[in-house]
Amino acid sequence: MTKALLQLAALFSTLSLSAFGGGKVILPTMHQAAVGEYDWMTSQQFVDLFSISMAAPGPSMMMVSLVGLKACLPYGTVIALLGALVATIGMFLPSSILVFVAGGFWDRWEESPWRKTIKKAIMPISTGLILAATWIIAKDSIHSVATGIMAMVALGLMLFTKLNPVLMMGAAGVISWGFLK
Amino acid sequence: MPKNPDSTAAPEATLASPIPSLAEIAGLFAFIGITSFGGGLTAYIRRMVVTKKRWLTDEEFMPGLGLVQLLPGANVVGLSVYIGNHLRGPLGSIVAVTSVITPPFFIVCALGFLYLHAGKTTDTGAILAGVTAAACGLMASMVFEAGQKAINGFFDIFLISMTFALTRLAHLHVPYVILIMAPLAIWWHRPRPDKSGSGKTPGSDLPST
Q1: In this complex, do A125 and B151 lie within 8 Å of one another by their Cβ atoms?
Q2: Is B137 within 8 Å of A175 when comparing Cβ atoms?
Q3: Domain co-membership, B35 together with B94
Q4: Rounded CA gap, A89 and A111, in Å?
Q5: Residues in contact with B93: Cβ distance below 8 Å, sequence separation at least 6, in sequence order
Q6: B73 inside domain
Q7: Tens digit of each residue's pLDDT, chain B (209 residues)
Q8: Which of B143, B193, B129 has the alpha carbon at shortest distance from A44?
Q9: How many helices and strands in chain A, by DSSP H and E?
Q10: Burial of A150 per CB tally in 10 Å (0-12, 13-18, 19+)
Q11: Does a structural domain hold residue B205?
């Protein structure tokens, strides 16, 4: 139990400072750790939980809490909640402290040409990481022609309309319940 | 930099509201936490804090947005830290962040328990099949959106491919991928004085810290 909690704390506090461009970019390592190295869940469970976290309110990456929850679920409900808490604090504390500290120096940096450089440098890296994350999700979400079509329609809706993503996911759940059951 | 709460007299005030109390900060950020769904969140926070509540001016908000976009972590969380600190100092930061995360934390944990305990029935399986497929489409749309901003030339495509390959094919963990790719990307996008590339060595105008 203590081992799992320590593993969660170590994993997410390291990942916290790597999440350039938001929580999505660390998804590949979360998957690798949770499914492969620590064997906390199956790949399908990972993708299911990830989708649940996307459909729920809150900052991106409440998935972190769910990984903590599942990792500690074998030890009971209370410990599972504790695991979720440890993972969440591990994820959000280091990056929050960084924002707090960096805020004090920001005035000097704001005009620097390096600010643009870093922004331009981060974008392609986070794009590559989000692509890798999408790949992982696709492998366990597209099982059939029907789910493939749904993913394509969802992609189109997100790119070309201003539809709220949560509404879209909710509608997809209802439609698929009606047809795939 | 927290504002002095006693400075009531600000005649030129673009800031119409007085400095909010910690309870007010907690209330608003908890509300933002629960009601923030999907994309466009930074715009949503701006509307709440700048336009509606008028706790900050745009001149105060925008640098914060620039900061959190550059630093690692979720933008919503970073902005909460920045805005909380701006309004009420360190304590304001702590209150804002805790408030924005706590309600979603309990909601997502409740959903997680439901899923993990109920297991997969034909019903939940069918619903989840649709939700995961839609989530996959949503993620793919983020690849397109990020790619649109990222790709300004051939080298950016190379950077994206390299990052993808290191992650998916070499199975490196994200922190290592960043340690490898960031110097390369920063070097390529370094500030260049002119197109002629006159004398100045790249890096010479690195801000002293």
Answers
A1: no
A2: no
A3: yes
A4: 33
A5: A96, A100, B80, B81, B82, B84, B85
A6: yes
A7: 444 444 444 444 455 577 899 999 999 999 998 887 765 678 889 999 999 999 999 888 988 888 898 899 888 999 999 999 999 999 999 999 999 999 999 999 999 999 998 877 788 888 899 999 999 999 999 999 999 989 999 999 999 999 999 999 999 999 999 999 999 999 999 888 754 444 444 444 444 43
A8: B129
A9: 8, 0
A10: buried
A11: no
Task: State how far residue B160 is from chain A, nearest Cα, in angstroms.
Answer: 4
Distance of CA B103 to CAs B46, B98, B115, B173, Å? Answer: 20, 9, 19, 30
How far apart CA B203 and CA B113 sit, in angstroms, is 51
Interface contact A163, partner B, CB < 8 A:
no
Q: Find residue B72's DSSP bridge partners.
A: A20
The residue type of B206 is: L
Count of domains observed in chain B: 2
Give the pair of three-digit tokens for residue B200: 């100045």
Cβ-Cβ contacts under 8 Å between A and B: the total is 359
Which tokens belong to B128? 């989840």
Q: Which of B114, B127, B138 is nearest to A137 (CA)?
A: B138
B161 occurs within a structural domain? yes
Q: Which residue segment(s) compose the domain that B61 sits in?
A: 22-116
Residue A20 bridge partners (DSSP): B72
Find out whether B143 and A101 touch, Cβ atoms under 8 Å.
Answer: no
Can you give the pTM of this predicted structure? 0.85
Nearest to B135 among A22, A33, A169 (CB): A169
Instruction: Specify the residue for token string 């201003």.
Output: A162
Do both B50 and B112 map to the same domain? Answer: yes
Cα separation of A116 and B198, whole Å? Answer: 20
Q: What CA–CA distance (Å, rounded) separates A59 from A22?
A: 9
CB contact under 8 A, A95 and B90: no
Single-letter code of the amino acid located at B147: G
Tokens for A51, please give them.
């989708």
Choose the closest CB to A114 out of B77, B109, B206: B206
Q: Is residue B74 part of a domain?
A: yes
A155 interaction partners in chain B (CB closer than 8 Å): 137-138, 140-141, 144
